[in-house]
């Protein structure tokens, strides 16, 4: 009991695993290179981005890579990077990054649907488009559920504890689906734009293949950091106290029985 009280009164902050900062830095290098190379591909080979023109479509891949891949990945890493900050501050940052990702992804969706409408193209016929809508809907539902359980002040601690494993699982799953959907879209764009020339090692095709590898590597780096059990954020004193209270309520224990 005395050790718990000592930790609640403000014990030493938990140390950061030695390798964690290097893996996080590597993931950020991959992510920023991914975003820069996506912009380079669109600028060098697709004419750049302009909303009121035939280049409106190009906003779609850039927004999706920034929002549903890079920012979503960074939002997932918040609890590994900010290990000793107040839990509520970390939650707010986690939620805000997801909001930014959602807004940017929404711009990307509007861009592609508006472009198709202007050109008279059919919507939602490809596997990429089906996966894209699924990912966006799941991501929105995941954010709403996370806000309701973890940021909304009226959510009971018991419900938060029961929902947390599902939230973690679906967060990683949606991120993985986002990376896979981006890869599908990249391959679809190459087949549409290059056709038979894709097999001739056109420079655009080679650059886009490297972009695909960066997508896979960024996704793998983020998932590796998330799945290392020894890199999880340590429980803070306030979380330990809440956990003890919840255990007391559910198991019928009392402080006097210990």
What does this structure look like?
This protein has eight helices and no strands. It has 258 residues and is mainly alpha-helical. It has a single domain, classed as Four Helix Bundle (Hemerythrin (Met), subunit A) (Up-down Bundle). α3 (59-81) packs parallel to α7 (203-227) and α5 runs antiparallel to α6. The longest helix is centred in the C-terminal third of the chain and has 38 residues, at 157-194.
Keywords:
Four Helix Bundle (Hemerythrin (Met), subunit A), 258 residues, globular, disordered N terminus, mainly alpha, 8 helices, 0% strand
Short description:
This protein is mainly α and 258 residues long. The protein has helices at 2-8, 20-45, 59-81, 87-119, 127-151, 157-194, 203-227, 237-251.
Mean pLDDT: 88
The ordered H/E elements are HHHHHHHH
Distance between the first and last residues' Cα: 9 Å
The CATH topology corresponds to Four Helix Bundle (Hemerythrin (Met), subunit A)
The chain-level structural class is: mainly alpha
Q: Characterize the largest beta sheet: strand count, sense, and whether it forms a barrel.
A: none
Helix content: over 70%
Indicate how many domains the architecture comprises: 1
| Strand-residue proportion | under 5%
- Number of helices in the DSSP assignment: 8
Low-confidence sequence ranges: 1-11, 241-258
């Amino acid at each position: 009991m005395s050790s718990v009280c000592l930790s609640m009164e403000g014990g030493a902050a938990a140390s950061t695993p030695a390798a964690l900062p290097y893996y996080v830095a590597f993931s950020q290098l991959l992510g920023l290179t991914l975003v820069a190379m996506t912009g380079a591909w669109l600028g060098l080979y697709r004419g750049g981005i302009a909303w009121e023109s035939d280049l409106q479509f190009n906003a779609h891949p850039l927004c999706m890579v920034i929002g549903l891949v890079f920012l979503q990945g960074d939002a997932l890493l918040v609890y590994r990077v900010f290990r000793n900050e107040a839990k509520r501050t970390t939650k707010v940052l986690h939620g805000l990054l997801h909001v930014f990702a959602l807004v940017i992804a929404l711009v990307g969706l509007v861009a592609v649907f508006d472009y198709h409408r202007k050109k008279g193209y059919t919507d939602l016929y490809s596997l990429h488009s089906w996966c894209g809508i699924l990912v966006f809907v799941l991501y929105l539902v995941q954010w709403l559920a996370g806000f309701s359980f973890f940021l909304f002040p009226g959510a009971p601690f018991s419900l938060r504890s029961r929902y947390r494993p599902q939230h973690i699982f679906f967060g990683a799953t949606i991120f993985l689906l986002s990376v896979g959907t981006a890869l599908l879209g990249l391959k679809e764009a190459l087949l549409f734009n290059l056709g038979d020339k894709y097999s001739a090692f056109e420079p655009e095709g080679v650059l886009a293949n490297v972009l695909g590898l960066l997508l896979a590597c960024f996704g793998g780096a983020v998932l590796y950091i998330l799945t290392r059990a020894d890199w999880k954020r340590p429980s803070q004193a306030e979380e330990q106290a809440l956990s003890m209270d919840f255990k007391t309520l559910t198991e019928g224990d009392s402080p006097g029985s210990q």
